[in-house]
Amino acid sequence: MRRTLVVIAFFVMLFGVWEALVRMKIWSPVLVPSPLSVASYLWSALKDGTLVRATVVTVRRLLIGYVLGLLFGLPLGLLTARFKFCEDTLGVIALAFQTLPSVCWVPLALLWFGQTEAAMLFVVIMGTLWSVVIATDNGVRTVPPIYARAARTMGSKRLHTWIKVIVPASLPFIVSGMKQGWAFAWRSLMAAEIYVTILSGFGLGYLLQAGRELQAMDQVIGIMLVIIVIGVLADKILFSPWERFLYRRWGTAKD
Amino acid sequence: MTIREELQNVPPEKLVVEGVSKWFRTRRATVHALDNVSLTIHEGEFVCLVGPSGCGKSTLLNIIAGLEIPDSGQVLADGKPVTGPGRERMMMFQESALFPWLDVIDNVMFGLKLKPNLTRKERREVAKYYLHLVGLEKFMRASIHELSGGMKQRVALARALAPNPRVLLMDEPFAALDALTREQLYGDIQRIWQERKKTIIFVTHNVREAACLGDRVVLFSPHPGRIQEKFQIDLPRPRDINSVDLAKHSTEIRGALKRHMNLDPTLAEVVG
User: Fold this and answer.
1) Measured in Å, how far apart are chain A's first and last C-alpha atoms?
2) DSSP-assigned letters across all residues of A36-73
3) What is the pLDDT of residues B229-245, one digit of tens each?
4) Strand B216-221 relative to strand B226-232, pairing
């Protein structure tokens, strides 16, 4: 409770200082808008629906691409951990592509798919996939062999052992891979949306870029705030439950 | 069956190890882990396998469990050759091997879920019964990392007992515990063995522990792993690890162990 008050007080103070600095007219209001004008931009964008529409477009791209990345990444990671052949082929590719900053997929995606949703999905999937593959692979390799042996004596067989023992035993690694994949996907999607206009839907990145073109600093800062809020919410909604579970069961430190 | 066994009303043969040999091949060397080992274990018997590390006793246990395949010879369980792991023979390891992603009761239920013809409710009841038997029913919702070493081994014992196997295979299950906890568990395991009428094969390198728990102690020597001697321990139960009668037996076994080790001077320091 006290900590919540500290956080609230800190932000109230921060906005207060910001407003005060703007009123002292040290910088041009074009470059540093007041928090009130940012708020009034957000309010009007909210009222006319642009903000909600853009958020929906962006979050939908992110979620669909991310889920697809997970759905492919998890089994592929299991394959590279299980079969030498997959490790030597797919595993090498995954390692190579994971070192590639996922923004670098944007030009290729645009050439392949044009300025379409598919291009955006592709970028998000590439951001997610390799991190998840590598984390799953690592996770499976660190599972103590005694777990599988114990499961076998209790009557667990191949597929059952994989689903009920190997995958849950790798969860700490898989969750951190999911987090990393999310971060990569989110950053590369923003880059892609700023970089090109996708005619099928204007996302938050487009609004940000439009703000720059209109020299509307209140819009730029307002959209940045929205992007931050989405990032924080995603962390809370998508990952906090997992991390609480890992903390409760494994007794590992919360980070 | 000999006349002596007939007259003594010896229970049926539960496990028969017939001429089992096993080699482990690594890139650098081949280790002869077991050399033509034969052993018969009767229904309801508590047999301890003792010997220094490297004598193949754990390997033999793994072969009986069906986790390893012998290079020659075979193991018969109730007259049928063992070809893989089975619920009839449950294994307990030195590390508890409990699953950290499950709580205590879900760990105990893991093997039960693989047993057909049990409803959810029945599985819970069975799991609770065994948790009660090891004195941990209050901890059924605890996470594994919250338990002490002794509690973990108790949960592992409950998990091994839950599918109601006839045979329990225990691979140095108390080796990593402190002396006090171990003594409690000696009492528990003897009580449960008598109550639940199990056949137990218990691997240890602690001679006194073997003499305390076993109806019979089977002494192994290493390189290659062979059975050297068998000792019958006819002491009333429950036995106390600190009792004087027990000391007599364990001294005898320790003497035999040293004698066999001296034949192999490179290993003399292991016994100390």
Assistant:
1) 20
2) HHHHHHHHHHHHSSHHHHHHHHHHHHHHHHHHHHHHHH
3) 888 888 888 888 888 88
4) antiparallel
Asked if residue B1 has pLDDT above 80, the reply is no
Q: Per-residue pLDDT tens for A46-88?
A: 999 999 999 999 999 999 999 999 999 999 999 999 899 988 8
Q: Quick one: DSSP state of residue B238?
A: S
Token pair 């839907």 is at which residue?
Answer: A201
User: Considering the entire predicted model, what is its pTM?
Assistant: 0.82
Residues of B with CB under 8 A from a CB of A: 65-67, 85-87, 89-91, 93, 95, 97, 99-103, 110-111, 114-115, 143-146, 159, 163
Q: Compute the distance between CA of residue B201 and CA of residue B214 in angstroms, rounded to an integer.
A: 9
Number of C-alpha atoms within 13 angstroms, CB side, residue B42?
11
If we measure between CA atoms, which residue out of B24, B101, B7 comes closest to residue B70? B24
d(CA A243, CA B9): 59
Spatial separation of the C-alpha atoms in residues B30 and B249, rounded to whole Å: 36
* Residue B92: its H or E element: strand B89-92
Residue type, B162: A
- Closest to B111 (Cβ–Cβ): which among A147, A155, A165? A155
Angle at which helix A171-195 crosses helix A204-213, to 10 degrees, equals 40
Please give the single-letter amino acid code of residue B114. L
